[in-house]
Amino acid sequence: MAEDLNWAVGGEAGDGIDSTGKIFAQALSRAGRHVFTSKDFASRIRGGYTAYKIRTSVDQVQSVVDRLDILVALTQRTIDENLDELHEGSAIIYDGERSWEADIPEDAAAVDVPLKSLAEDAGGAIMRNIVALGAACEITGFDVEYLDEALEKRFGGKGSKIVENNKEAARLGQEYVQENYDLDLGYDLETTDNDYVLLNGNEAIGMGALAAGCRFYAGYPITPATSIMEYLTGRIEDYGGHVVQAEDELSAINMALGAARSGARSMTATSGAGIDLMTETFGLVATSETPLVITDVQRSGPSTGMPTKQEQGDLNMALYGGHGEVPRFIVAPTTITECFWKTIEAFNLAEKYQTPVFLVSDLAMSVTEQTFSPEAFDMDAVEIDRGKLIEGDDEVDEWLDSQGRFRAHAVTDDGVSPRAIPGTTDGAHMSTGLEHDELGRRTEDQDERVRQVDKRSRKVETAKEREEWDYREFGDADADNLIISWGSNEGALIEALEYLEDDGIDVRIISVPYIFPRPDLSDEIDAAEETIVVECNATGQFADVIEHDVLTRVKRINKYTGVRFKADELAEEIIDKLSQEVPAQ
Amino acid sequence: MSSQSDVRFTDFKSDKQPTWCPGCGDFGTMNGMMKGLAETGNDPDNTFVVAGIGCSGKIGTYMHSYALHGVHGRALPVGTGVKMARPDIEVMVAGGDGDGYSIGSGHFVHAVRRNVDMSYVVMDNRIYGLTKGQASPTSRSDFETSTTPEGPKQPPVNPLALALASGATFIAQSFASDALRHQEIIEEAIEHDGFGFVNVFSPCVTFNDVDTYDYFRDSLVDLQEDEDHDATNYDDAKKVILDADKEYQGIMYQDENSVPYHEQHGVTEDMSEIPDGAPEDAMDLVREFY
């Protein structure tokens, strides 16, 4: 892989860290460089330490590493928080005129730039972060003109004056370093002619929803799911759709269910305690056979937990949440592009099988911005399958009983019943959370109960046969060491391969995007000498499921600090774990 | 949709026999709903009834239309979703005093605020009937029940006042046994441009021996007979809604300038219609991220 550069801007929450980082990421993307970003942020508007980190290379990057080359530090704490990652050859850009006495580690190059004064020269102190970006350009040999495009995108709506001032601020920073420092740290950011798009997992989910024909979204704001709602707001209307902010998650999921009963492709998304509230309605979605996509962008729990931190702790909830036995599908995208494609798939599964589909993402993916070729989101490849939706009135006739009543929950070979939506002549019917007969009318008849339970279960069996439930595979297919992962750990694992190769260790990586139904990994685990399941939770929820599937013990790597896996750290953990004994049966 | 003359109210009746106690107010409430829907030009195939949980929740089974019988307290959110996705469909939400004013009270406030163009019919019997006689949010403070042997000792919710305080554009009250007036009021609620809320006194003959047919027959004042009451006047509405001495039937309040949600937000499309693939200009969505 080509050489990478690791850059960060850090300060207090409220310092504009996020938008500063985003502007630099955008500039790198415009220069045809790949970008992978991560955020360390606190759940406060002001007061906490926050940082936006960028890893960039001309090759695809899909993980963070424990190394920082350029750090824009707006506070001393930013330096202190990142001491472990700084090295000989790192540069720290800071403002020596500010009140704090900068304590710069010996190895790193101290680049003191009067950020505030130069920003004032350009038109306002508010642009001090942009001055720092200009300084960073000079140190990394990166043409400041790429910043211009990003600044136009960011500030274009605020008028040309603001854009020009920001461009000037960047130049003042760049020139200051050029004139006052003679640094040769060896950074020279190469550019390419490639056009990339830069987006995060939540934006990919939102875009996937629009591509899939989602027309209704109801939600209640919650970190880190809110940005899906914000993405759709202002865009879904272009397609005749609507986003509604409900009074709580109980309402949100029921509104989404109502819209789905009306025939709209409908979705809600939440996280943390929001998914707990929505659990109330899981069973109704399933028994009323309503196609609904329920997105859970996992964050650290339980209870309020660490709302802005990463975790993959909701797998059991997704599998088992809700009283009684609730047939469902669980799809868990493993990359940002897969957030897009799996969302489309979730809508198709929901309508084909008239079943709740859980789209389980996580915080790390929701806040990470990553570059992709636009073809990775090829809209021509989007397929829509609405299942047994009755399109014409004449189709209703074959599903009427002898008294002309529509059999909305007709027991069929594949378990899937015809679906008539309001306005369809003679399709009027009742659906309910009560056990019911084919007409949707309440029943407690034993045979009827068994027929309907079996019918709903059969939909899952049918889907198991008809659909592909493949895993994604990387590394050496013949390796003795098998690493299994779900969710967003895939990128870090792929990059860990390089570190493992350096140590002469071959591994096969299986990244599983389907939690239920899921691929049978018996043969793969049998063929391996060692199996390790990697996930961001404390108890190993996916490892438990895998052990249950294949009736053998696996090793586990669990991280629950609230921070996603890093490639180099993961490689070390794998090496360490391979040398340990397999836990007792 | 069939023309008005084709539809009879019995078209809205299913062949399932109600299991309500003989004499239950819900029979009369439901008849008025069916007649009101038929009289306002609807038919079962363009009507969606959402029912909550409780005795009142059974109504979806006894009526014939598109219907969903949902989770306790969440009928209004379901109706909201149905109507937003399909403005062409007539939506009527039905529930009881427990469903609407206890477990669902949060949704009630916000449904009122949203002013979605649908009707909400609450069968208020001031008791929990299906669970065999416990206090409801509208039970009197001295009403003795199995779970409140000395009465709830807290004032009942005034649903009309709650609606008024939440910014309602249509507030009415009817009595299940006064069939003609009940039906008229339901029709007004259906035809109102916005959220048409009707609290219906629907006596429970089994568990409530206080708020009986006789009680309402003797005490209800019909606003139709009160020449001084102007339903479009907010102060008039406030006066009757907050009157601690009398109970009324009729339309308490109707905002003539009500702007329903779909007009306020430009939600007018039939959301069930989508293309076979991604929208034609969908690559523009990708290019936004350049």
Strand content of chain B: 5-15%
Helix amount of chain A: 25-40%
CATH class of the largest domain in chain A: Alpha Beta
- CATH homologous superfamily designation of the largest domain in chain A: Pyruvate-ferredoxin oxidoreductase, PFOR, domain III
Largest sheet of chain A: 7 strands, mixed
Question: Quick check: average pLDDT of chain B?
Answer: 96
CATH superfamily of chain B: Thiamin diphosphate (ThDP)-binding fold, Pyr/PP domains
**How many strands of chain A?**
21
Which CATH architecture of chain B?
3-Layer(aba) Sandwich
EC number (chain A): 1.2.7.3
Biased composition (Basic and acidic residues) (chain A): 434-447
Subunit structure (chain A): Heterotetramer of the KorA, KorB, KorC and KorD subunits.
GO biological process, one term (chain A): response to oxidative stress
Topology:
The complex is a heterodimer of chains A (585) and B (290).
Chain A: E1 5-12, H1 17-30, E2 34-40, E3 49-57, E4 70-73, H2 76-81, E5 91-94, E6 109-112, H3 115-122, H4 128-140, H5 145-155, H6 160-180, E7 197-200, H7 201-211, E8 214-219, H8 226-232, E9 242-245, H9 249-261, E10 265-270, H10 272-287, E11 292-298, H11 315-320, E12 329-331, H12 336-353, E13 356-362, H13 363-367, E14 369-372, H14 394-397, E15 430-432, H15 446-466, E16 472-475, E17 481-486, H16 490-502, E18 507-512, E19 514-516, H17 522-527, E20 530-535, H18 541-550, E21 555-558, H19 567-578
Parallel strand pairs in A: 1-4, 4-5, 5-6, 8-9, 8-10, 10-11, 11-13, 12-13, 17-18, 17-20, 20-21
Antiparallel strand pairs in A: 1-3, 2-3, 7-14, 12-19, 16-18
Chain B: H1 25-39, E1 47-51, H2 59-62, E2 66-69, H3 75-85, E3 90-96, H4 97-101, H5 105-114, E4 119-124, H6 159-165, E5 170-175, H7 179-191, E6 196-201, H8 213-219, E7 221-222, H9 234-241, E8 248-254, H10 261-265, H11 282-287
Parallel strand pairs in B: 1-2, 1-3, 3-4, 4-6, 5-6, 7-8
Antiparallel strand pairs in B: 5-8
Helix pairs in contact in B: 1-7
